Amino acid sequence: MNADGSSKKASRAGKGLMPSVAKTARARRSKSHGGRPTKSDAAERDRRLIDVATALFLERGFDATSIDAVAAAARVSKLTLYSQYHDKRGLFGAVLRQEIERWLAPLATAAEMPVSNRSGLSIEKSLVDLGRKLQAVSGEAGAWSVGRILAAQAGNFPELASLANEEGWLKAVVTTAQLFDRLAAKGLLEIADGKIVAEAFLHIVLGHNMRCAMYGIPIDPKGQDKRLRLSIRMLLTGLLPKSQQGYGYPLAAQEIES
């Protein structure tokens, strides 16, 4: 009886300890093996993964970059990568979205800048400053290279081209048009169609540089800035109300000739 009674007591005691033991074991497994990552850990992992994928795509191109290489360099499992992006096309789409978001940031800020009591001079200077910011972001290492990869793969993956057009270019046009529409609403510019003016502005800022980047032609910073300033001056010449035609961001003769 004593033996049986002791055995039953031990069993009951063991059952009482089981939840605590299991909880401790789970905590140890979580600590030693990482467990389920927190939101901040997952976000950091995703940022690292996209940064690594971007670097490899730029270094090797789309075709020569493998999922295995990205997973190994980012220190994540292939299962994690596939569950998140499905395939290499999805991974490149994430890289493309990151580049688009980075490029759109200056436009989003400019679209919300104050526009009241602005003379033609300050409008022109603000647009020149915005153009310089966009050129700086676009000129950073790798920015145009992503565009070249996209151009090469557009025939194979038209959805990536649609992504770049819809989330990149068209969104940039709409965001820039908001700025011009607000200037027009204040009577500071005379605009019939804000989107067309926005497209013209973006072509002025990026068109020449994009062609140079696609063809591997070096960009002359001095010539780039001269082209930007004079082109924006010409754009505004047709948009400023007659009462403000005399205003402008002053360009010295030596600046124009240089």
Write up what this structure looks like.
The chain has 258 residues and is mainly alpha-helical. It folds into 2 domains: 37-86, Orthogonal Bundle (Arc Repressor Mutant, subunit A); 97-245, Tetracycline Repressor, domain 2. Helices cover 76% and strands 0% of the residues. It is built from 11 helices and no strands. It has helices at residues 2-33, 39-60, 67-74, 78-85, 88-111, 120-139, 143-153, 158-185, 194-215, 221-237, 253-257. Helix 2 crosses helix 5 (88-111).
Q: Secondary-structure map with pairings?
A:
Elements: H1 2-33, H2 39-60, H3 67-74, H4 78-85, H5 88-111, H6 120-139, H7 143-153, H8 158-185, H9 194-215, H10 221-237, H11 253-257
Helix pairs in contact: 2-3, 2-5, 5-6, 5-8, 6-9, 6-10, 8-9, 9-10
Outline of this structure?
The chain is built from eleven helices and no strands.
Provide the succession of SSEs: HHHHHHHHHHH
CATH superfamily label of the largest domain: Tetracycline Repressor, domain 2
Distance between the termini: 107 Å
Largest sheet report: none
**Overall 3D form:** elongated
Radius of gyration: 28 Å
| Name of the level-1 CATH class of the largest domain | Mainly Alpha
What is the number of helices? 11
**Global mean pLDDT:** 79
Features:
2 domains, 258 residues, Arc Repressor Mutant, subunit A, mainly alpha, Tetracycline Repressor, domain 2, disordered C terminus, 76% helix
